[in-house]
Structure formats: C-alpha cells, structure tokens
Amino acid sequence: MINIYDDINKLESTLRQTPEFKTLKEAVELVRSDEESKKLFTNFRDIQMKLQEKQMNGEELLEDEYMYLQKTAQLAQQNPKILAMLEAEMAVSKIIEEINRIIVKPIQSMYDGL
Amino acid sequence: MINIYDDINKLESTLRQTPEFKTLKEAVELVRSDEESKKLFTNFRDIQMKLQEKQMNGEELLEDEYMYLQKTAQLAQQNPKILAMLEAEMAVSKIIEEINRIIVKPIQSMYDGL
Ligand SMILES: [Ca+2]
Ligand SMILES: [Ca+2]
C-alpha cells in the first residue's frame, strides 16, 4: 500500500522551511500590522476577487471596472509593504508552479502524440 | 541548504506508483491503440481547447459553438474506452488537487483574517 500522504506532507514541511516561504510570511505580517497597508491591500484584493468572479461567470468587464481595478492595483503597489508582499508571493508561486510542473509531467507525457 | 527537489521528485515517483496513475496510463494506451476512439477523443480535445482559448481571451462562446462542443463531448463519452480514460483522469486529478490543497494550505493560512 502506497502512502502518498507521507511524501506530500514531507514536501509541504520542506516548502515551509524555504527562504521564499519565510519571506512571504514576514511580508504578510508587515502588511497585517499596518492599518493603511492592510486597508489598501484588502480593498484591492476584494475588488479583484469580485471582478474575477464576474469574468468566470462569462461576463465581460466594463471599461470602468477594468480601470478601477487597475487604479486600485496601482495604489496598492505604491505601498512598499504591499509591493514586498506581492513580490514574495511571486517567489512562492514559482515554487508551487515548479512542483506542479514536475508532478504533472509524467501525466502529460501519457498523451504525447495523441 | 534545503533541497526541495528531493521531496518533489520523491512525491512524483510515488504518484507514478499509485493505482490511479497506472489505471490512467493503461486507459490512455487503450484509446491510443484504437483508431476510432483516438479520433473521437482528439477531435473532442481539439475543439475543447480551441473554445477554451476563445473564452480565456474574454470572448463569449456562441450558442452554436457551445452546442457543438457538448455534442462532441457526448459522442466521445459514448465510447467506452474514452469514458474509462476520462474517469481515470478524474481519479488522478483528485490526487493532484489533494497535493495542491495540502501544499498551499499553510500559504493561504498566512492571510487568515486579512
Ligand atoms: Ca503606513
Ligand atoms: Ca473501436
């Protein structure tokens, strides 16, 4: 009996020990503990989620909505604590993508030439 | 120095040993080696990809396109070899989702209450 959970949990534990993970955790705490940064971030995130949901329902975004999202994103990124957090998120995302790339590669290969 | 690749490769190797992975591999080979099944599947997959691309570009699908996709999917699923492959894909997808759920959980938790 193969227990894949042992390997998943091991990987999850190692991921938590990476500098990228630790940097992100610190960056999130800095945003959380600063009222202004926290507000800018949650505002941007809430708008983004609302508009993404709309898009996933097959609705096109109005130009006004798109511009408001862009502006809110711009405002958030001008905040150094949020910018640092977004950059840390990207570094962690790269690891997650790398994990997925390696994991799904043998599955994708099954379909080669099909 | 943390070498996360050791853990990723270990997990990838274990995944390849699961019954779900082996069942999928056999199911894909059965589709590949049967001309009729292969044609039905690749036809469905190609249409699905084309329409998904359209949707990702923010274009809405025409009702005709949607119905054609549904019909091609229906035809494909009436083929027992393809149906078995799609079911095997779902079983493997569940494992991949479970891996991702566990891996990203500590990242998502960072944002709790934000
Ligand atoms: Ca401040
Ligand atoms: Ca046949």
TrEMBL record, chains A, B:
Domain of life: Bacteria
Record InterPro entries: Com_YlbF (IPR010368), YheA/YmcA-like_dom_sf (IPR023378)
Gene3D superfamilies (alphabetical): YheA/YmcA-like
Pfam families named among the record's database cross-references: Com_YlbF (PF06133)
SUPFAM superfamilies found in the cross-reference section: YheA/YmcA-like (SSF158622)
Similarity remark: Belongs to the UPF0342 family.
Protein name: UPF0342 protein CD29_03050
Organism: Ureibacillus manganicus DSM 26584
Taxonomic lineage: Bacteria, Bacillati, Bacillota, Bacilli, Bacillales
